[in-house]
Amino acid sequence: MKIGLVFNGGGGKGAYQVGVMKALYELNIHHYVQAIAGTSVGALNAALFLNNSIETAEKVWQTISPDKILTLKGTEQAKKLMNLGVNSSSPLIARLLKAEGYGVFSRSGLLEIIYENINLQKISDKKIPFYATCVKWPTMEKTYFKVNGLAPLKIEKILLATSAIPGVFPSVEIDGVQYVDGGLSDNSPIQPVYDEGCDFIFVISLNRDDTIEQQFPNAKVIQLVPKEAQGGFVSGTLDFKATTAQRRMVEGYNDTMEIIAPTIRTMKREANLFNLMEKFSEEEKMFQLNQKQQTDQFNKDMSDLFAQLEKGK
């Protein structure tokens, strides 16, 4: 059984995914994960998942605060943005982008979180393929960065770029190209995980209206959508209060245990049955091989015996 995980983007709503992660650890499903991808905050959570410490992931979100993430670069521009109350792809927000890479808030808070909680070299050394979605600015062409094997500094830039909401955070230059939030093109990066040959792909959404329209033959895509709405752009995406994050983590955990856990248990039973069938098949092959070897040896012994009898005549 080869499982892939996809972490969708959604800013402050990302705390929900940590609750999902905790449930997956308790269900021991993390041992089967063979590929992972994330967009925006989903990429950050994916990195925390690969760090193999659910406690660290919980601590990040339990101690988060608006001033850690939304470090103001300009008060007046921030007020304008907050008053919009619409999603980041709105033409209204686009009007704020007077210069390439312009953003109201700095990235110092996110950098601090990365430095204190994520071992980027460990992430680079991981064997599990890890992809982060970014969008080239201003062409809006999506790019799936494969993080494995990259230098820690480049991984840091990718994590900043994939969550660089235009008008909120500045774009990030990687290899001479400006990149912004991957959610503008592919907020649910299933494709790179599918291309890794996963049989089951779990998509952890942060919006109740998220849908998966593309078909992925020979793979079962299972989408987890929050039972309770996680908020809009200002009330959700830009909501980084610790109290709200705690509530979202609890909801993510409970939703997973209620909705996904039965599916996972069925998958594990099927996987065990498949393994037993494979084991039986291998044992049958060995039995047949031994039978053939014994038959061949018997025939050879009989031939030798007849030959000796012929000589004795």
Question: How would you describe this structure in keywords?
Answer:
elongated; Cytosolic phospholipase A2 catalytic domain; 313 residues; alpha/beta; two-stranded antiparallel ribbon
Identify the CATH class.
Alpha Beta
Could you state the order of secondary-structure elements as H and E? EHEHHHEHHEHHEEHEEHEEHH
Report the uncertain regions. 74-82, 92-101
CATH superfamily: Cytosolic phospholipase A2 catalytic domain
Could you give the distance between the termini?
65 Å
Mean residue pLDDT? 82
Helix proportion of residues, in percent?
40-55%
CATH architecture: 3-Layer(aba) Sandwich
Q: What's the domain count?
A: 1
**Alpha-beta content class:** alpha/beta
Rg value? 26 Å
Describe the largest sheet.
Answer: 8 strands, mixed
| CATH fold-level topology | Cytosolic phospholipase A2 catalytic domain
Q: Beta-sheet strand percentage?
A: 5-15%
Instruction: Count the beta strands.
Output: 10
Number of helices: 12
How would you sum up the global shape? elongated
Describe this structure in words.
With 313 residues, this protein is of the alpha/beta class. The chain has a single domain (3-271), classed as Cytosolic phospholipase A2 catalytic domain, CATH 3.40.1090.10. It is built from twelve helices and ten strands. The strands form two sheets. Strands 1, 2, 5, 6, 7, 8, 9 and 10 form an eight-stranded mixed sheet that branches. The chain has a two-stranded antiparallel sheet with strand order 3-4. Strand 7 (172-174) and strand 8 (177-181) form a beta hairpin. The longest helix is centred in the C-terminal third of the chain and has 71 residues, at 242-312. It is elongated and about 100 Å long. Mean pLDDT is 82; it is low at 74-82 and 92-101. One of its GO terms (molecular function) is hydrolase activity.
